[in-house]
Amino acid sequence: MFKTFDHYLKILLFTIVICFEIGCSPKLSNSEKYTVNSIESGSDILNNIYQKQTLRVGTTGDFKPFSYIVDSTGNYTGIDIKMGKDLAKSLGVKVEFIETSWPTLMSDLMENKFDIGMCGVTITPKRKKISFFSIPVYSSGKAAITRDENALKYNSIEKINNKEVRVIFNPGGTNEAFARANFPKATLILNEDNLSIFQKLVDNEADVMVTDAIETLIQQQIHKELAAVNPNAPFNSFDFGYLLPKDTVFKTVVDNWLLEKKKDSLIIKLLYKEIDKHQ
């Protein structure tokens, strides 16, 4: 009843496609249409990338299907990892993935530990105060994931926001912010990382997590005991983007590259591949 994965996925992908084709692809003015080669000396970030012949991509490695680690190799994979490699290729440089975390993501950017953050980063007003973002990559919203038998029990914020409900979340990102803002009456469990949360839900160490809708769909495929709760009707909506330092020229280069990838439907193709991995 709850695991109508294909139905949810079609709706979710339709929303993403609409975002790609209409809502998330603003046209750049003629003054903004720079090419990489013509402006590589007009940006401190680009100058550094070309001097070192390396694009440094900050990534958390804990957010399927965007950025995660393959256990057998220890290497990063996911949609944004492949996009990072593509961006580096378009710049004609190597790519280096720099480990970051949700609690340190913004400070790592400010300390110049990486050139671009690519790991399913939500565009928020707080983050935009101190950074730039690319044009939106895709749109989504927060949805609950819980054990299959509890899907009806936790299908609204009101039902989750009760003291007997154990809400688990990872630190430092929008999952923590959403939980603290919306579930003040619930028993809140701060978990040290994101990926171990889903097994803890299976093991009944917590009742529910609220995270990105696409992640709930992926994780219910991995953990058959879990169910994504109404991922086609999330609690809110937001955009993901690539996190950038405040460098207008570098942002323009990234935006132009991303517009081309949207025309090629690259991210949709990568999303389908990631979903196929976990079915």
Automatic annotation (TrEMBL):
Superkingdom as given in the UniProt entry: Bacteria
Domain Solute-binding protein family 3/N-terminal: 54-278
Keywords associated with the record: Signal
Keyword Signal: yes
InterPro entries associated with the record: Solute-binding_3/MltF_N
Protein name: Cyclohexadienyl dehydratase
PANTHER family: AMINO-ACID-BINDING PROTEIN YXEM-RELATED (PTHR35936:SF19), MEMBRANE-BOUND LYTIC MUREIN TRANSGLYCOSYLASE F (PTHR35936)
